[in-house]
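At this stage, I put together a protein sequence along with its fold in token form, as given directly below:
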Amino acid sequence: MQDLVLPVQYIRQIADLVSDMGTDVAAWLARSHLSTAQLQADNLQLSQAHFHQLIEDALSCTGEPAFGLLLGERLVVNTHGLLGYAAMNSTSLRQAAQLIERYISLRTSLISIRLVETADEAHLVFAEAMPLGSISRPVLEAVILAIKNVLDFMTQGSCVLKRTVFAFPDPGYADLASELCKCEVGYNQGWSGFVLPIQALDQPLKMADAASFHDAEQILQRELGKLNAAQPMSARVRRVMLEKQQGFPSLNLTARLFHLTPRTLHRRLQAEGTSFKALLEEVRHSLALEHLKSGHMSVEDIAYSLGYTDMANFRRAFKRWQLQSPSAYRAEQQ
């Protein structure tokens, strides 16, 4: 799985919340074989497994099911570095949303964000950019509320959300979610994110500074180029597959996204000891496990979401991966 992108400032915010809730931070970190001294290092890099363990332990230690919401509530605009600064200087919500969509990977590899427009609404859709399993809910809650804080700051509170929606079931604290999001909150909605009035996208913002925005975006572009160049091609292809998991891109389309020919992409993946087909199989396997563990989707819906039009093909693939049927695996997990 690809390396985790998550600046240490976010881990420190998690630690502060854990501490504020009366939990010993050193003991919490020790469960993941980390120390408070490591937390002070600006170059601290966690693996996905480390981060997963930290969040699970934070939920367990604090006993607070709404930990993700409470974390997101304290992630203000200047927590997000240059991306937050550029968003502050955007001329409109549309420009800010497109900026965040394009550069969110510089702040986290956990979540992807995209702007979707309908006739009278704008949807800011948040999705897992890598399978999050049991920490999916708190991570999505934290990121969604953090981005809402950015929107509130940019618009000086004038942008009122129509509603906030989550793909998972009501966790039992809907009233708190509604209070923090300052709007109606819905669950089991099939996607997670915000709904805004379409006319709000292009309203001029009083804090806009076109020159500052341009300068910040130039730096973000360079940083994104460095990030992409540093990642193996297989990790970049895997990320694209995870971001577009509602319809996996073909080899031809994926190559085009990276400005390569299909033959060149195939050759680069081969040099890394893998192939497009193997990566797709790996992503499908990983997502199938996470969906079955979560229990939010039927086996048939999982098969369809992974691109299998024939249930028999999905069952055969799953037995090849796990040596048992999807239903047996789900029953075992539950």
Summary: The chain has three domains: 1-64, 65-231, 232-334. The first helix runs from residue 8 to 20. The mean pLDDT is 91.
